[in-house]
Amino acid sequence: MSQNLGPRQIDQGRTLARDSQDKALRELMVQYQEGSLEAFRALYAQLAPDLRRYVRFLMRGSDAADDLLQEAFLQLHRSRAAYNPVYAVRPWMFGLARNVCLMHRRAMRRWATIHAVGSDLLPDVPVPAAVERLADADAIRQCLAELPTDHAEALTLHHVWGFSFEEIAGMLGVSAVAARARASRGMARLRAELERLSSSRR
Amino acid sequence: MINDSTPPEALLAKVSRDLRAVRPWPTPWRDALRLSPLALGIIVGLPVLVGLRRDAVAVGPFVVWGVSLIQVALGIVLIWMATREGRPARRLPRGGVRAALAGAGFMVVAVSFVTFSKSPTHVPHGISPWLVGMVCYFGSTVAAAPLFALAAWFHSRFVSPRPALAGGLYGAGAALTANAGWRLICPISTPWHVLTAHGGSVISITLLSALTAHLVALRARRS
Question: What DSSP designation does B111 have?
Fold first, then answer.
């Protein structure tokens, strides 16, 4: 059945699913703000898997990723009053995790080391659906690692984690137009890298 | 092996230790607007306490009160930007933030020349221009202190990836508002005085605020 759906309908379906998930997450956040530990556990259970992959992606597979994930949840706890239920929870939490990673990177002054990791440390990032037919997952991950960080981040935030460009703009501190442009350039470059890789293998 | 969906015990212990109910803070606009009574208090309070500038009639009500109100509005916008900067996933584009900061600087310069063109007044003979400058510099800095302290307290609740920028925005917002009040009581309009004493105070508060926010964030990271 899903094979008959066009990309736009698939996108609409994803948006609906995301909206209903976010409604549940907002309710959990409100319960957590009211002092429920169970709500915190439930939030962790729903957000941690995706966040771990995102943090690993940002940290390029660094060993610090798990510690930073815990730090992000600690920051959520310390600043839980700052969350207002009018906000979507997933972008808030991804943005918080991003802030924690940025501050860690700045503190450690390890940009150069992080960006020089080998392909064996490539993050466990899911492959964007838009390119998964073009090559195997490993090849796509390898090519993703070749992209400029800001392009790869916008690309994965949109195509993998399903954030809108407005949400991505808020996380990255750029305009929605710039976020769209980064994702689009990232996708074009990813396709070019994949073609280059496949022609070199032939 | 890390379980993907169960929080580690250490994290749970830290969370459980402080799980009191909290009330959600307002959105950035409401947060910034909560400061507006204090901001308006500064531009009304200073003339009430010290007296309105002697050449107010010559300068005209728009350049006296209208421009000060516009400056206060810009100050609140800068504080709103700082509040957004401190919230995850609510950050504003860098270009917009830079434009607002540049606009604040431009406003201080433009207002000083417009006021001078309406009523050119100089430091009276026999009084040291340096002394007058120091009084205005420290006076407007002190006038900004309450607003700055309140804005900084708001900011201390958030984690900003660019603390210096957020601090600079808070400082610039508070300084611009204090400047709007100070220009209502200072009878000297010569650009030399206004740009060095009044403008110097705006720049100093902005830089000091950015530096303080940076050091506070550095210390928080180390602890």
Answer: H
Contacts with B18 from chain A: Cβ below 8 Å: 77
**pLDDT tens figures, B27-78:** 889 888 888 999 999 999 999 999 999 999 999 999 999 999 999 999 999 9
The chain A residue lying nearest B163, using CA atoms, is A103
Co-location of A51 and A144 in the same domain:
no
A167, A92: one domain = no
Does one domain contain both A142 and A93?
no
| Amino acid at site A39 | A
Residue A160: which residues within 8 A CB-CB, separation 6 or more? A125, A126, A127, A128
- Domain final residue, candidates A90, A118, A146: A118
Question: Which of B7, B12, B20 is the closest to A35 by Cβ?
Answer: B20
> Domain end: A100, A118, A136, which one?
A118
The reported pTM is 0.81
In angstroms, rounded to a whole number, what is the distance separating the alpha carbons of residues B171 and B20? 32
* Rounded-to-integer distance, Cα B170 and Cα B151, Å: 6
Task: Give the CATH number, domain containing residue A60.
Answer: 1.10.1740.10
Task: Out of A37, A49, A102, name the one closest to residue B161 (CB).
Answer: A102
Residue range B153-165: mean pLDDT, rounded = 75
Q: Is the pLDDT of residue B128 over 80?
A: yes
Prediction ipTM score? 0.76
CB pair distance less than 8 Å for B91 and A37: no
